[in-house]
Amino acid sequence: MKSKNRSECPINFSLELLGDKWTMLVIRDMIFEGKFTYKEFLSSKERIATNILSERLKSLEACGIIQKLTLKTKAKVGYWLTDKGIELIPIILELGAWGARHSGYGWEEKILKKMKSDKRGLIRNLTHDIQRRGPVKHEPIAPEMILS
C-alpha cells in the first residue's frame, strides 16, 4: 500500500485504496458469498492470481478495511470485514446496480428490486447478516434475510 496519496481529494484517496480491478471483488465475495479464507477467495470465478490476492489482502488489512484472524480450523487464517469495511456495502450495491444497467450482465433481480423499494433496509439487512455470521461462522448470505 502506498504511504502518500497523489492529492488530498477524497475521491482520489478512495480510488487509490479501492480502484484496482481486484480489491472490490474481494470485498464483494466477503459481503455476498461469505468468503473469508485465502482458499475461498482463490475459488472466485474471476481467478485472481495468488500473488495479487496476497497483496490485496495485506493492503486491505493495513488500511483497516479487513482484519486478519487466527482460526482453529484447517485454514488457520481468515479475514473479516471491519466496521470500516462494512461501510462499503452501499458502494458495492451501487456498483452492482450500475453495472447491471449498463453492461448487459444480469444481477440478482431480487437485490435490484429491494434497492429500488428499500435501499436502506437492504443495507441494514446485509450489515446485520455479516455481523450475525461473525468471523467464525461464515456462509453465503441468506436471501430471505436481506430481502425481508
* Helix-residue proportion: 55-70%
CA gyration radius, whole angstroms? 15 Å
Main beta sheet: strand number and arrangement?
2 strands, antiparallel
Count of distinct structural domains:
1
Protein structure class: mainly alpha
> What fold name stands as the CATH topology?
Arc Repressor Mutant, subunit A
Short description:
Helix content is 57%, strand content 7%.
Task: Indicate the topology.
Blueprint: H1 10-18, H2 23-32, H3 38-42, H4 50-62, E1 66-70, E2 77-81, H5 83-86, H6 89-103, H7 109-133, H8 143-146
Helix pairs in contact: 6-7
Description:
It comes from Chitinophaga caeni. Residues 9-107 form the HTH hxlR-type domain. Keywords: DNA-binding, Transcription, Transcription regulation. 57% of the residues lie in helices and 7% in strands. By secondary structure, the protein is mainly α. It has a single domain (10-134), classed as Arc Repressor Mutant, subunit A, CATH 1.10.10. The longest helix has 25 residues, at 109-133. The chain is globular.
